[in-house]
Specification:
- The structure is a single chain.
- This protein is 17% helix and 34% strand.
- The chain has 15 helices and 47 strands.
- The longest helix has 25 residues, at 590-614.
- It is globular and about 90 Å long.
């Protein structure tokens, strides 16, 4: 029974009324506030227009009072009959945020102290026939940390290490402090008789195209008076045909066995094959009568993190079904600051955007949550691997406290068991940046205490995983490995030289240095990074104009305003200015800021990721920081809060394409032409490099025959810059790579920084066909740099945007509104860096 209806909430001062008075089954709560479950208090108050939306202007500060109150939830449900002695009724909360006490029919049945856990309460003896009442009291969090020792280090706030909730609720460098409270997960009432499934675990021991061996481990929980237990397990393919099955007895609470599958369909990431899913059904019987059933989808595949290559050299590469993968993806933060109220559709939109950008991996960052089931289900279906951090980010944690450690232990058990059957789950990781930053901060003298929390990541978590998920690998931290926790020669790496100005190389024990200069933060430093795996890196860009305008008061909607600054939660806003100063020049108004920051982010990520991919023999992955936004701010995201992709997202579709044509070049140096192939088949054909001037005249054309092996990379040649340009000044050159016979995207390059390229004035012609929902864009007079299509509407999808056009070249763009709303096509405008904005002409 899903208990999602008729919930109400009310606030009280701490201690204002005795808890049993408010929890009383007969309390008159008619005048309480109607609420949605799952959800949260903030979202309820917004929906009822009791607070202004905290994402507009500075309104988040006006709602800080919410976290100081005691909040109560209440609901009622009906029971058709009274429970019998043979029945076990369990009340299940899949998400309580955070310190809560639960009452049923006025009786306290238990407490909760962890947002990241599912809580199960036996209510068999307190529910009754007819009307039943549930009440949940949420304490303000200060009651649970005010008497605790403060950690020397806890980024953004000293409060959170003792509180097991999403760290980003307290504010991060890309989002505001909004400390949520409420029932953020589903609430269910379940009935069991004699016994129930406590755990079903399935993993692939080995597989190839001929046979797969699947290990199944079952665990049952028996109740008093339990009869003779037996089980039936079967595996069904997509056509609901049984491909393997087994029957047996549960003489104890646990049993394990193998299923053999002949000619299995393997689960692959979507770029390498089909993410094929089977259905595993396990049925529990007592004395021959069915008493419980579990149905779940599983994939037959192996995923291995390889730490040493065939030559015995250090590596950090994921191998799926024996195939070495170049991981292409991004870091995932919660989809909204108001996590509980975020709809499943938002997950589907954001994950589909990842697939459409050719990503094959998402990293669940430690400062958010262990994501909702919908996230993993979609990754299973769509073929994306998941790197899963445990929820420990950028702080010391009190592993010296037995109660805290036990709370964390139960959190880990809960989430390991919940997630371990997902085909998409590739890796467990202990924390985000804690090992690395502890060393830096202790080396600088900022931390003088022991490494509190270390036993969690290096002892408890690997021990639990060995028991509960032995088929999946564990990595203690990110970044981690070698003589420096951020060593390019061992493990994974976070490159925060770019943007944050961290000075590399640095060894353990050395005082960290920062270089806040154009040279110190520039994305050109990516080419100095020969990491084995780049798991975090990126740079800021503005949100789209539509998103900013929707959330900033009109009188503050200008570059340099207080409200614009408030959208940026990073420390030292000068870093973004320095990046733009070195590449585009410093913006002078809001439109220039949006354009310059987007172009810098897009070209910077292209510069770095093409470098990583050209070095795929050594480097095996790039995960951009970050995928999307949890509120409408300026950040490192590829997709802004209104689900509108930035320029960098459209660039990602190209630089993450499995077949990539790439130029490696610096001013005055040799120009190299590369082909990178992540497909499992080889390619042979013609690759064309053509040089144009700014009027679109072809200056030089080179045709090269290319042979690139499966999952390989090849350098086709290198040439002197002057030889390629044929005396055309490099500031006036546009280079285009193409491979007409391949299913491969063209790639366009400028040989100098954007501020030095001598663009000429261009003009845009735009025509929108209402029937086909296609926009036809053409450039005239000169090359149009970064053509930008704008529609004042959220969640608009385009087949391309922020692209370059040669004069006379036409691009056809498919456009739709992903929520199914009517597209506001009558407001389409098109512009470029060097072309005035025009409205699209409508036609049928």
């Amino acid at each position: 029974m899903l208990l999602s209806d008729n919930w109400r909430i009310q606030q009280y001062e701490v201690g204002e009324k005795p808890p049993l008075t408010i929890a009383d089954a007969d309390l008159d709560d008619r005048f309480w506030i109607s609420a949605s479950v799952p959800g949260d208090v903030h979202s309820t108050l917004i929906e009822r227009k009791l607070i202004d939306h905290p994402y507009y202007g500075h309104n988040d500060i006006n709602s800080r009072w919410v976290e100081q109150k005691e909040w109560w939830y209440r609901t009622r449900f009906q029971m058709d009959s009274a429970p019998t002695k043979q029945e076990r009724w369990e009340l299940i909360f899949e998400g309580l945020d955070t310190h809560a006490t639960v009452y049923v029919n006025g009786l306290e049945i238990g407490t909760a102290s962890n947002m990241h856990r599912t809580y199960v309460y036996d209510v068999s003896r307190v529910i009754r026939q007819g009307k039943n009442t549930i009440a949940v009291r949420f304490d303000p969090l200060y009651l649970h940390h005010r008497d605790k020792a403060l950690m020397q280090w806890s980024s953004y706030t000293k409060e959170r290490p003792w509180i097991r909730k999403a760290a980003m609720n307290y504010g991060w460098d890309w989002g505001p402090r909004i400390v949520t409270v409420g029932i953020w997960g589903k609430v269910k009432l379940e009935r069991h008789v004699q016994a129930k499934w406590e755990g079903v675990y399935a993993y692939t021991k080995q597989c190839d195209n001929q046979q797969a061996d699947i290990k199944i481990e079952l665990e049952a929980k028996k109740y008093r008076g339990c009869g003779h237990l037996t089980y039936h397990a079967r595996l069904l393919d997509e056509n609901q045909q049984v491909v393997a099955q087994a029957d047996g007895e549960l003489l104890s609470s646990k049993v394990g066995f193998d299923l053999q599958v002949s000619q299995p369909q393997l689960w692959w990431t979507h770029d390498l094959g089909k993410p094929y899913l089977y259905q595993l059904e396990t049925v529990l019987f007592a004395d021959g009568v069915e008493i419980d059933r579990k149905e779940q989808r599983i994939g037959i595949r192996t995923v291995e993190l390889v730490l040493e290559d065939e030559q015995g050299q250090p590596a950090f590469a994921f191998h799926i079904n024996g195939v070495k993968l170049f991981a292409k993806g991004s870091n995932w933060i919660p989809v909204d600051n108001l996590i509980g109220a975020a709809p499943d559709s938002r997950y589907k939109h954001l994950i589909m955007l990842g697939v459409e950008a050719n990503m094959n991996m998402l990293r669940i960052w430690a400062g958010g949550i262990y994501e909702k089931d919908v996230f993993y289900d979609l990754c299973d279906e769509l073929g994306l691997l998941v790197w899963q951090d445990f929820a420990f980010a950028n702080a010391l944690f009190p592993d010296y406290n037995a109660d805290f450690v036990e709370n964390v232990r139960q959190e880990a058990i809960c989430n390991i068991q919940r997630l371990r059957n997902h085909a998409s789950l590739a890796l467990w990781c202990g924390n985000n940046e804690i090992d690395w930053l502890y060393d830096m901060k202790s080396s600088s003298g900022e931390i003088t205490t022991p490494f509190y929390g270390e036993t969690i990541y290096h002892e408890m978590l690997p021990e639990l995983l060995e028991q509960l998920d032995p088929a999946r690998q564990y990595w203690p931290s990110s970044p981690y490995g070698g003589n420096d926790a951020n060593d390019p020669n061992h493990g994974d790496r976070h490159n925060w030289q770019v943007w944050h100005g961290s000075v590399y190389p640095r060894k353990f024990g050395e005082v960290p240095l920062l270089d806040y200069s154009v040279e110190g933060v520039t994305f050109k430093n990516y080419k100095n990074d020969f990491t084995l795996f780049s798991s975090e890196f990126g740079m800021h860009a503005s949100a789209t104009k539509y998103t900013l305008k929707r959330h900033i008061p009109a009188d503050q909607f200008y570059w340099g305003s207080v409200e614009m600054a408030y959208r940026n939660k990073d420390t030292n806003h000068q870093k973004g200015i320095l990046l733009m100063e070195g590449f585009t020049g410093v913006p002078q108004d809001l439109d220039e800021y949006i354009q310059f920051s987007m172009l810098t982010q897009a070209e910077g990520l292209k510069y770095g990721i093409e470098h990583y991919r050209r070095n795929k023999a050594r480097t095996s992955g790039s995960l951009i920081w970050q995928h999307s936004d949890s509120w409408p701010g300026t950040s490192w995201s590829l997709i802004d809060y209104e689900l509108l992709p930035k320029a960098s997202y459209y660039y990602a579709r190209k630089f993450y394409d499995p077949l990539l044509l790439s130029l490696n070049h610096e001013p005055g140096e040799l120009l190299e032409l590369w082909v990178i192939n992540d497909h499992l088949s080889s390619f042979s054909g013609l690759v064309i490099l053509e040089v144009y001037d700014m009027q679109g005249q072809s200056i030089h054309r080179m045709e090269l025959h290319a042979e690139v092996e499966a999952n390989g990379v090849v350098k086709l040649g290198e040439w002197d810059e002057k030889q390629v340009l044929q005396d055309l000044p490099p500031e006036q050159a546009v280079l285009k790579l193409s491979a007409p016979a391949w299913n491969c995207l063209d790639n366009v390059y400028y040989l100098r920084d954007a501020k030095d390229v001598q663009l000429r004035s261009s003009s845009i012609h735009a025509l929108y066909n209402e029937e086909t929902q296609q926009l036809f864009v053409q450039a005239k007079d000169a090359v149009a740099r970064m053509v930008q299509i704008l529609i004042p509407q959220g969640n608009v999808r385009m087949s391309d945007n922020y692209f370059d056009l040669l004069p006379g070249e036409q691009r056809t763009i498919d456009i739709r509104q992903a929520d199914g709303q009517v597209l506001e096509y009558q407001h389409i405008t098109v512009s470029a860096l060097n072309a005035e904005e025009v409205s699209a002409t409508l036609t049928r």
